[in-house]
Amino acid sequence: MTSAGFEVITMGRANVDIFPLATGVGLAEVSTFGKYLGGTPANVAVAAARLGRRSALISGTGADPFGVFVRRALTGYGVDDRYVSAVPGAQTPVSFCEMFPPDRFPLYLYRAPNAPDLQLRAEDLDFAAIKAAGVFWATLCGLSAEPSRTATLAALAARDHAHPTVLDLDYRPPFWTSVTEARRWCEQAIPLASVVVGNIDECEVATGCREPAQIAAKLLSAGPRLAIVKLGADGALGADQDGQLRIPSVPVQVVNGLGAGDAFGGALCHGLLAGWDLARTLRFASAAGAIVAAQIACSDAMPTVAEVQAVLADTAEWEIAEEGADA
């Protein structure tokens, strides 16, 4: 595959998810776990690949057995791992979660002292591939430390506002000294993106407000062409130059909500590449997220196009609330 052949390139965290095989039980009591590929950029790349898109991940792992697992898992899902490097002296990050459906999923991230994905350097990036990708996807986490911060901003800038260039407001409090610091770097990165996506809490970090329509308007005013606010059980709101629309969520019995947003992200990439309108894209992404929310694993659960279409076919016609840009 040539560097120009990628439809989706994501950049940032790749880790091993060690998730309990039971819900409603704290980690202190759990005795059986499953091992899965994790990390938002890795999951989004997998989600896109499962939908038939040629995807690659830019990341780092430790030079350890878990690093071997990460690379094998990526390639097993159809994600190109040529930009995933083993960082000497680093350990592959591991995450644990607790699952208390429907809406409490504490996540414990083990990344100290030097997470390899935060060691990415601008001089090591394949800027030709980044520029040529149909979609480039970066996250706020990549801005939390150097040299990854400089590398992430350089990658976003290299796109020169090509659409779609996505900034995922993937805010993780342990990565930051303060919300103020995170917002500072949001303000640097958002104008470089053509698409910004995040949940209410993440969008509050970026904008200082929690009302979805106001969030979307504020994000668009900073330069992006498309703003998407994920609302969990309340659906999603999307906004572009034509206005705002809101879709409800797909009904689902939630098991683990942690991977739903990443499935949404991969499906968003798919819809953007297909040239769908915003309503169709959001419906498809919402259905993909619902499929993953109903399962324990994240990457393992990413659906195919046929699986998403089956959910949409079984779902009653949704009402889409049109909202003015100033609503």
Provide a descriptive summary of the structure in words.
The protein has a ten-stranded mixed sheet with strand order 5-4-1-8-9-10-11-12-13-14, with helices on both faces. Helix 1 (40-50) packs across helix 8, helix 6 (200-207) crosses helix 7 and helix 8 (260-274) runs antiparallel to helix 9. By secondary structure, the protein is an alpha/beta fold. A hairpin with a 2-residue loop joins strand 12 (236-240) and strand 13 (243-247). The protein is globular and about 50 Å long. The chain has one domain (3-317): UDP-N-acetylmuramoyl-L-alanine:D-glutamate ligase (3-Layer(aba) Sandwich). The longest helix is centred in the last third of the chain and has 16 residues, at 278-293. Helix content is 34%, strand content 22%.
Radius of gyration: 18 Å
Largest sheet: 10 strands, mixed
Assigned CATH architecture: 3-Layer(aba) Sandwich
Q: Total helix count?
A: 10
Summed up, the domain count is 1
Annotated CATH topology: UDP-N-acetylmuramoyl-L-alanine:D-glutamate ligase
In short:
The protein has 327 residues and is α/β, with parallel strands linked by helices.
